[in-house]
Design goal:
The chain is an alpha/beta fold. It has helices at 10-19, 32-41, 81-91, 107-115, 153-162, 173-194, 205-224, 234-244, 251-258, 264-278, 283-295; strands at residues 2-6, 24-28, 43-46, 52-55, 58-60, 69-74, 92-100, 120-125, 128-133, 136-141, 145-147, 167-169. The structure holds ketopantoate.
């Protein structure tokens, strides 16, 4: 059994390192320093309890050097999905399954357009991790992962669960994906703008009020799109994610601090566009989308 993880960022390192005890794992990415560090000394995984694991996996930047994969986990940034889809197409076995565990609402269709819907599954993970350097990651909070139906999805979920990353196969991946999008729409831009951890968003009534406004707008768009969200209270859902990942720096905050592009278009940008299409006003999501766009130029 061979799993290829696309992406060498924080979650790519966590999933690769945890799976390596069970199966052969390869990492494929475009970040030269990340690849070099993993090949030189393995992944350095700082566990939430303070233990440090050094895990050997193969890493490279050329999809032609990676042997055929039973499973591909897509953990690149959402603006890199199209390239990742081409990679997945090259290295996935004909009966293999690629699972997107990325932030954003449109990764599944983009992947399926290249590799076929029958080899694509959409997934969602709430696990939080912080990139410390090339190939080095702090796992902050192990949280549930969900995978939609797909050939081998049950087997992959069992592998991930055995690796200490509890994973559930669900028929309602659409609802789960939008639930995560609601959380990302509220948490990611605010943590990136205020430069605070997820938990610190709950520190004052002003922060909580804006968190709720963003969450409520995102949930209204989801409901107008016909999605049955797995909660009634969007703000309550987002606050629960903040508490569960309290010590984490959101991926968008990490991107802003490192001077990298952010996923704002795939998170709040898509919500604003969907809102327009469906006649749902999203002024707060539009404001944070523009603020983040302005921040990174
Ligand atoms: O998905 C995340 C992210 O940072 O992108 C959460 C769940 C908010 C964890 O930080």
């Amino acid at each position: 059994m061979r799993v290829v993880v696309l992406g060498t960022g924080a979650l790519g390192c966590v999933f690769a390192a945890r799976l390596a005890a069970q199966v052969e794992v390869w990492m494929l990415g475009a970040w030269a320093e990340g690849i070099a560090a993993v090949n030189a000394r393995g992944i350095l995984l700082h566990e939430p309890d303070g233990r440090l694991a050094r895990v050997t996996v193969m890493a490279c930047s050329d999809p032609n050097q990676v042997p055929a994969a039973d499973f591909v986990l897509v953990l690149v940034k959402s603006y890199q999905t199209d390239r990742a889809a081409v990679w997945a197409g090259r290295l996935l076995k004909p009966d293999g399954l690629a699972v997107t565990l990325q932030n954003g609402l449109d990764n599944g269709p983009r992947l399926a357009a290249v590799i076929g819907a029958e080899r694509t599954a959409v997934g969602v993970t709430y696990t939080g991790a912080t990139r410390l350097g090339p190939g080095e990651v702090q796992l902050v909070a192990v949280q549930p992962t969900f995978i939609g139906p797909g050939r081998g999805a049950t087997q992959l979920a069992a592998l991930l669960t055995a690796a200490g990353l509890p994973t559930h196969v669900t028929d309602d991946i659409g609802g789960r994906l939008w639930a995560k999008a609601v959380a990302n729409a509220a948490i990611n831009p605010l943590t990136a703008l205020w430069r605070v951890t997820n938990g610190a968003l709950l520190a004052s009534p002003e922060r909580r009020a804006l968190l709720a406004l963003l969450a409520d707008e995102a949930a209204a768009v989801a409901r107008a799109a016909g999605v049955a969200l797995p909660f009634e209270d969007a703000a309550g859902h987002v606050e629960a994610v903040c508490r569960a990942t309290a010590a984490n720096r959101s991926s968008m905050l990490q991107d802003v601090l490192a001077g990298r592009p952010t996923e704002i278009d795939s998170i709040n940008g898509i919500l604003v566009a969907e809102g327009r299409r469906l006649g749902v006003p999203t002024p707060f999501n539009e404001a944070v989308w523009r603020l983040l766009r302005g921040l990174t130029g």
